[in-house]
Amino acid sequence: FxxxxxxxxxxxxxxKRCFVCSKMGATITCWxxxxxxxxxxxxxxxxxxVTQFFGLYRSFCxxxxxxxxxxxxxxxxxxxxxxxxxxxxxxxYKTMGCPACQEARFHRPCIxxxxxxxxxxxxxxxxxxxxxxxxxxLTMGIRTCRRLPxxxxxxxxxxxxxxxxxxxxxxxxxxxxxxxxxxxxxxxLLCCTSCAAEGTHQHCCSLEISSSTWECQGC
Length: 219
Prior knowledge:
The protein is of the alpha+beta class. The protein has three domains: 3-60, Zinc/RING finger domain, C3HC4 (zinc finger) (Herpes Virus-1), CATH 3.30.40.10; 68-149, Herpes Virus-1, CATH 3.30.40; 169-218, Herpes Virus-1, CATH 3.30.40. The chain contains three helices and eight strands, in the order αββββββααββ. It has helices at 2-14, 108-118, 131-139, and strands at residues 28-29, 38-39, 50-51, 59-60, 95-97, 105-107, 189-191, 199-201. Strands 1-2 form a two-stranded antiparallel sheet. A hairpin with a 7-residue loop joins strand 3 and strand 4 (59-60). The longest helix is centred in the first third of the chain and has 13 residues, at 2-14. The radius of gyration is 19 Å and the shape is globular. Residues 1-65 form the PHD-type domain. This is PHF7 protein. Residues 80-128 form the RING-type domain. One of its GO terms (molecular function) is zinc ion binding.
């Protein structure tokens, strides 16, 4: 019965079209009753969807995803508390905030990268709150992991704001080497959209030239 049920799930998913990339095989459907939007997991970021990696593992499209309700308005010229680059003028899918101190702001990719590297030490980078902060991040689709921080006992780990800058494919095909990158084309270097801790040239992982997102095998 289990094998039959699994096959049914696969067949049903094969019939669903991803509303982000328009390709078939979308295995995730919005949890909102009456919404039939489906999407692939790698298309989550591009489609501004939310998948919650806890509890019932619910997923939501861009229209029905949970929204943050922060009280403190953003100050002018606010910057990300992690990378220090400017953030949007208000909270959104790309710009998130801490529910505890109400003032810390960060880009979604920055806080996702911090969550995976910090492990069980994940907390607000400004006020250090953990319980309220982590629950909010989980609800907003940030994935965490139950392990020690990657920097503990590893002196080779660089600063959190240091962007990954080399190809981690098992066989790098780039004539210029693993650290070579171009703005466009087969030798454009893509970082994992979930952990940002691994990268690949588009050609080294047989990605289409139009691909702008990629996830490593670990994610």
